[in-house]
Amino acid sequence: MLDRHHLAIIAAVMETGTLTNAADALHLTQPALSHTIKKLEDILGTPIWEKDGRRVRLTRAGDYLYQMALRLLPQFERGETELRRFAQGLRGSLRIGMECHPCYQWLLRNVRPYLEQWPDVDLDVHQQFQFKGIAALFAYEVDVLITPDPVFREGLIFTPAFPYELKLAMHASHPLAAKTAIEATDLSNETLFTYPVPTERLDIFQQFLLPAKQNVALHKRVETTEILLEMVAANRGITALPGWLLENQFAHLPLVSKSIGAGIHKHIYLGIRENDAEIDYIKGFIAQCVAHDNA
């Protein structure tokens, strides 16, 4: 019968490149590893891999099992971790994935009251600019995904946390600051600062510039919100950020903001797996975030 250790062997072979390396990683002998897979092949009635020199090449059946391993092994590891926590008298851990790059300060405002309410729950945040949020949810790498771009798929639930408008920010002396309405052609000679994410995930391109068949003169990517805003405050260019974030910066930076075209209106969503919907500390986190931003 197919078992977890079969998936672990296939994953190790693909990750290490050879049977010898996989056997070392799994603390097995190579003959034992090969025998285990040969026995599984006999049971299933189909080969799983083919030898290619020192390396192996997966068959269609093997690739199917490898994809299964990528999905299931993290779930086994997560389950074991959680069960150990239960044995230690702890409630659980909440891992949050961030696809909303300027949302970190917003998250911090919710973290303290949440941790006070749930003292036996640990919290961790994964903030990566090339974060594959939906895949991370399905792979059990994160428990809650904070995103402005939900992908509604079977098995996932997205709860809107709060609405916002994406605004164009510039130095107070910038020529665009005097305009009552921003048109796509207004940006053709501008330097645009954004976070380092693919253009297809930037709303100012997808919802404003590209539909009008326009572009900026120069597109520069900056990793941190603070440096990005300082570049705009130095009149080096413009940027597009949530209105609520910009409002928090106006007190100490010479910035003004304008609606982009007719307005780009978005929501921040909290995504979870459907089968986690009744876990009390996950429900508590969502309730905390929604209540905070509707207060």
Automatic annotation (TrEMBL):
Q: Which domain of life is it from?
A: Bacteria
HTH lysR-type domain residues are 2-59
A Pfam short name? LysR_substrate
The keyword Transferase is annotated on this UniProt entry = no
Q: Where primarily located?
A: cytoplasm
Which BP terms in the Gene Ontology apply to this protein? methionine biosynthetic process
- GO function terms (MF aspect): DNA binding; DNA-binding transcription factor activity
Q: Does the keyword Transcription apply?
A: yes
Task: From the Swiss-Prot or TrEMBL record, state where the protein is found.
Answer: Cytoplasm
Q: Which UniProt keywords apply?
A: Amino-acid biosynthesis, Cytoplasm, DNA-binding, Methionine biosynthesis, Transcription, Transcription regulation
Its cellular-component GO annotations read: cytoplasm; protein-DNA complex
What family is this? Answer: Belongs to the LysR transcriptional regulatory family.
What is the official name of this protein in its record? Answer: HTH-type transcriptional regulator MetR
Q: What organism does this protein naturally occur in?
A: Suttonella indologenes
